[in-house]
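Record pair follows.
FIRST:
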Amino acid sequence: MTNVILCGGSGTRLWPVSRENLPKQFLKMFDGKSLFQLTVERNRKYSNKFVLVSNENQYFMALDQLDEIKLEDYISIIEPIGRNTAASIAFAAFSVDEEEVLFVTPSDHLIKDDEHYEKAIKAAYEEAKKGYLITFGITPNAPKTGYGYIKVKNCNNDICDVESFKEKPDEKTAKKYLEEGNYYWNSGMFMFKAGVYLNELKKYAPDIYEAVKNACKHIKKRDFMRIKKEDMLEIRDESIDYAVMEHSKKIKMVKSDIDWKDVGDFDALYEVLPKDENGNTKNEKLLALNSKNNLVFGRYKKQIAINDIDDMIIVDTPTALLVTKRGNGQKVKDIVKVLKKINPEVVKFGRTVYRPWGKYINLEDAPNFKVKIITVNPGKRLSLQKHFHRSEHWVVVSGIAEVTIGDKTFLLRPNESTYIPIGEIHRLANPGKIPLEIIEVQVGEYLSEDDIVRIEDDYGRI
């Protein structure tokens, strides 16, 4: 069985902890591990192969985190733009034998009941081998409005026929579902043979099938499979639910009482984080007086004090502060929509920005200058590039820097520096065995990250 992990999504409802450059599935919030890592570790006992579907930034974060948990056997598919799950799963299905059973999972779910999880997977596997498309339904314990619902009939033990899929309801409708019974939360997990899925996609969404099939012909294969942007643009944006599951006559649902949480917003995060005797989330830097049932999140050694505050969400990061009421976690995405128009950088990036070669931390961001700490991992290098609007001054803090400026290449050691004029072609590399750290000072009238012209890049970026 192959586990297809869908790594997409920007986690806007968990802003400002989650940013487009570092979405929620890669945040290490659970005993030093991310939801992505927990997904891999949970499924590696059932799957002998993995297929990761992600965008470019997520791909390089996934590589680092897979290396930490020592997973080596996987295929990576990089989508330049998102076209939803119907296409993502189709790319995965085309990459394996048609008889291979695919276990499709999001990368951002938390599952704690391993015994029932194994039971659900085994039941689904037996049905998938018979040629069914299997979805996993979670028994609802509250009228949640953030989940889609599945209505079932004719249940035989834990296997049910699917009568219909329901979109995310309002609270009144969700309560009605629970009163009627036979409704389950749609977990977004699926299992089926690759060929069965592709045949059903071809039947009910032939345009998506043909567009994905055509894109597969042009995939650039290196250590990963990169899809061309022009091919992705030809694919209709559609979820597997709308494209296939709502139409197919081969659908079965497995009841899955697996202590499942879709940690999609701060209300869901509050449920899974440890709390003190007053219901406040635990934080060694939190002083809470006459306050209860608050989610207070801050991981940056800053003292936080609250007084006479109940049922609030308070999220502190170096570049943004969020304060809202508990129960309104779904509405954070509305804040992000506005911020994308007035301050898009704060949606895309936090203080720390991860790149395939390492990371950088923004220390100071002023109108005409910016200061960063850049860390380049051993054996890695930045692209050969130039800028039209800024000059740069590099000072080595630790490690050895190999610097290319124009047609000259030279080494810099700690406390040595160099200057890159506007428009000059340059590159920074780490030829050593330890991380390279430099201080970079940028000076110019325009300092955004899109002022980069890449001439040559080890990671295929443009």
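SECOND:
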Amino acid sequence: MSSPTTKCPYPAGEYAPVAWPLSRRGDVVPAECGQLRAASPIARVKTLTGDDAWLVTSHALARQVLDDGTHFSLRETAAEGRPRQYALTIPPEAVNTMGNVNSAGLHQEVLRAFGPRSGPASAEWMRERAHELIDGMVAEGAPVDLRQRFAEPYAAVMVSEVLGLPHEDGCRLMAGLDLGFVTSPEAFDGCTANWDKDFAYVLRRVRGDHASRRGLIRRLCELRDDPDRDGADLTDEMIAAVVTSLFGAGAMSTYVFLLHAVLTLVRHPEAMERLRARPELMPRAVEELMRCTLSIGDGLPRIALADVRVGEVDVRAGELVLVCVEGANFDPEAFEDPERFDIDRSPNPHLSFGSGPHFCPASAISRVHAGEALTALLDRLPKLRLALPADQLVWRTGNIKRVPERLHVLW
């Protein structure tokens, strides 16, 4: 099904009547998504920095922008003088990790590292880690903060294993991770301090003893040193930047999704019971959870490289376009009864991993790790539930992700 091509009632110079960014609450779809999608699936908004941007809320137009690597660029969002959704508080090289990977010819290596496979970070390995963490929760006794006791350490150890970082260091890196995802109208003193610290740590690992290297770090170092490959474009600094970026993006996305998934499941106890009885349905449930969870809070940014038509709007070269994922994932033109949580939904063309040239390289392993973690939680904690009403949750502000500060649970 295609999205309606409603003419934009908010032309250049006029702005959609919404406050951007949208609500930071992650358990309620912002009403503005549906209102804008119906009235104007691409509309003008003011960003946090006061810049102009086009906000896309329909599934069809979101796919057009994300799939079109010719007319739209992620790399350019970090370039000097471009309009921004918020101030650049991380180094430009962290913005375009996959672009740097692609330019160095490393795309397949990253996909291979984050692909489901036997050995380290396999489904069996992740299942063991999940049960170890649940053992600790049970020994501690309810209530526990699922974020601190399960989601964050599970994410840290999984991504560390793939990248080749010591597990204990992954947990340390996780401690300051939120600082790298701050949104602000302007850069501030120390805004890159956590990145600088983590980058320096990873660079030491890259330059360390060969015998101690493993995972993706080892593979990238082997390619750098391969005499049969022109490795001039693959420096220690590039490897460290790629690994640091992948850790941040992978660990953050992993733990935030798990919190959202549990929050969704406990609000649908009939689905929880069905998944306990039929765990083979978990892969489909994960897809639906990825569609309907609201972790992406600020839109996926792209800069137009040339004049291009998007729906009924002429986007000019140099303009900023923001893809509102929650708008696209709840578009009734793409999903029947989108407000319903339906683990049998098929097809399910959600855009939670993005689309096109910057499609998330960890999508395969993310599906596996999510299924293993959620299956373990439902199996071991049959009465899993929130320790306080959902409307009492505190949602973090000033962050790229919608994430609850804590998620205390009982069982």
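COMMENT: The first helix runs from residue 31 to 39.
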